[in-house]
């Protein structure tokens, strides 16, 4: 079968398409004919540095989420940290979710990781009507969903992103206010921050929090974490660790699919790359020029 190999850590060019042995499911596993593979920013970090939640070493076929066919049904599934960038992938049976009617398979793959993350964050934030919520990277995969969830909770949504195209998308998704975080003094006073960028942007958002505010740091698109050492002094609560138990992840993912099928949540797929161009897909994500979700089209 065709697959993408990573034989060493490094630049996007270490992702090379080639042939791979057919995967064989073991006890409690199933074999999925893959149509789309999910790509996350975490996977780009892992490829570059080896740092991340995946307990695998090169040579390896990357990819932790896929969508395709299983016994004639459309399904999506998380894997065990590898094997997704391929025509077929082995998945734990407990992770497999059937795609509901009314939702495209590609949309379901776009929601698999980002949907559960956004729902996890919005649940932890316990948003209430009238609060002012700042969403960083508001045109990204998770950020675009958080804009919608915060708006549905009755919050005033401030969407932060870089450039007019991204800000226009955030506005279309329901943001009340849009701000370009490349401009000085961009961060207005807020009650809640969803920090998917880190670094100086995350710190500026943190400093914009009112006393009693909540900061949820879930990503480092800037390449570094923001500093929150003075959170207690500022009377701000910071959450940066796991906000859900592992067994809750499939439940949250299923809820995201249901919400999208009902028209209450819209996944944004901004870029699609064929399997053989996985390196280009990673490079696009790292450039921070992408909109919404980036998918690999396997078939």
From TrEMBL:
Pfam families: ADH_zinc_N. Gene3D superfamilies: Medium-chain alcohol dehydrogenases, catalytic domain, NAD(P)-binding Rossmann-like Domain. It comes from the Bacteria. Keywords: NADP, Oxidoreductase. Residues 10-296 form the Enoyl reductase (ER) domain. The keyword Oxidoreductase applies. Transmembrane segments: none annotated. GO terms for molecular function: NADPH binding; oxidoreductase activity, acting on NAD(P)H; zinc ion binding. SMART domains: PKS_ER. This is NADPH:quinone reductase. It comes from Amycolatopsis albispora.
């Amino acid at each position: 079968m065709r697959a993408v190999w990573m034989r060493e850590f490094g630049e996007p060019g270490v992702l090379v398409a080639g042939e791979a042995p057919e995967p064989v499911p073991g006890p409690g596993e199933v074999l999925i004919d893959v149509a789309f593979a999910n790509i996350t920013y975490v996977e780009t970090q892992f490829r570059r540095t080896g740092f991340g939640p995946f307990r695998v070493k090169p040579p390896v076929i990357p990819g932790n989420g896929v969508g395709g066919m299983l016994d004639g049904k459309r399904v999506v599934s998380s894997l065990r940290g590898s094997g997704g960038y391929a025509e077929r992938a082995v998945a734990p049976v407990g992770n497999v979710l059937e795609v509901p009617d009314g939702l495209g398979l590609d949309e379901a793959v776009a929601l698999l990781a980002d949907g559960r993350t956004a729902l996890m964050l919005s649940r932890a934030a316990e948003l209430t009507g009238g609060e002012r919520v700042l969403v960083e990277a508001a045109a990204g995969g998770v950020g675009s969903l958080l804009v919608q969830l915060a708006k549905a909770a009755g919050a005033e949504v401030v969407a932060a992103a870089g450039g007019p195209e991204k800000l226009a998308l955030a506005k279309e998704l329901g943001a009340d206010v849009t701000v370009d975080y490349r401009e000085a003094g961009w961060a207005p006073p807020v009650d809640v921050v969803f920090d998917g960028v880190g670094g100086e942007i995350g710190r500026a958002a943190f400093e914009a929090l009112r006393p009693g505010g909540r900061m949820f740091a879930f990503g480092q698109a800037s390449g570094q974490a923001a500093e929150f050492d003075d959170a207690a002094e500022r009377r701000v609560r910071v959450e940066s660790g796991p906000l859900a138990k592992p067994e809750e992840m499939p439940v949250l993912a299923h809820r995201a699919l249901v919400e999208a099928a009902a028209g209450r949540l819209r996944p944004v797929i901004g870029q699609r790359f064929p399997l053989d161009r996985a390196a280009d897909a990673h490079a696009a994500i790292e450039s921070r020029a992408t909109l919404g979700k980036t998918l690999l089209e396997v078939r």
